[in-house]
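Deliverable D2.4 — example input (structure tokens):
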């Protein structure tokens, strides 16, 4: 199992990353704004599924707050179960929205398959912009993060789709110099990507499944 210090840091950053989702689900205006950013016009979230997401995030935060100074492997396994629970609750939420909510027309299948990944891509990029603008700009420059303008196409409004190249992200983590040299002539400069790698590598491998 990975070092408990690394896992604790990872889960702490993950909790920070998903906190805006909890806030959006607790505010009607923030919820609508979030969905519009993701290219969907949804009037209201399914209540029970939204509460389930909030509950799993609250559980994750509570367990972090009560984590012993020297956590055991069982403590860390519990935290990782909370991490998994957040993602699973988002998938259940997407299924409920597709099955019961107006505003997505006949795009139920597309919503179920795309929404969880699009949501976490959005949260990841917002998190990076707020915590490490240098890392974010580097990933954009390397075409690992891409922003694509999508025109309005009923029932979806105009929006900006965020794509993350998980294949190249793996190269970034294992051999950042090689990837940088393949994109731009930065061979005389050094870049430290260890922080971004530590935060995202396990999480992003989960998202791409």
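Example output (designed residues):
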């Amino acid at each position: 199992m990975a070092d408990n210090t690394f896992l604790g840091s990872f889960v702490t950053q993950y909790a920070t990353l998903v906190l805006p989702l909890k806030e959006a689900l607790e505010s009607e205006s923030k919820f609508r704004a979030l969905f519009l950013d993701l290219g969907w016009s949804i009037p209201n979230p399914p209540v029970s599924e939204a509460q389930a997401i909030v509950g799993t995030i609250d559980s994750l935060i509570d367990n972090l707050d009560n984590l012993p100074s020297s956590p055991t492997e069982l403590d860390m396994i519990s935290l990782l179960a909370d991490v998994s629970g957040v993602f699973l609750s988002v998938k259940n939420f997407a299924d409920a929205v597709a099955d019961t909510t107006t505003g997505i027309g006949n795009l139920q299948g597309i919503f179920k398959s795309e929404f969880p990944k699009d949501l976490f891509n959005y949260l990841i990029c917002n998190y990076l912009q707020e915590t490490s603008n240098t890392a974010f700009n580097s990933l954009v420059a390397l075409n690992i993060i891409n922003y694509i303008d999508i025109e309005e196409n009923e029932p979806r409004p105009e929006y900006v789709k965020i794509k993350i190249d998980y294949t190249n992200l793996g190269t970034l983590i294992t051999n950042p110099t090689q990837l940088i040299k393949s994109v731009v002539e930065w061979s005389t400069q050094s870049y430290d990507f260890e922080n971004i790698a530590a935060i995202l590598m396990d999480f992003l491998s989960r998202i791409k499944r």
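Confidence is low (pLDDT under 50) at residues 183-209.
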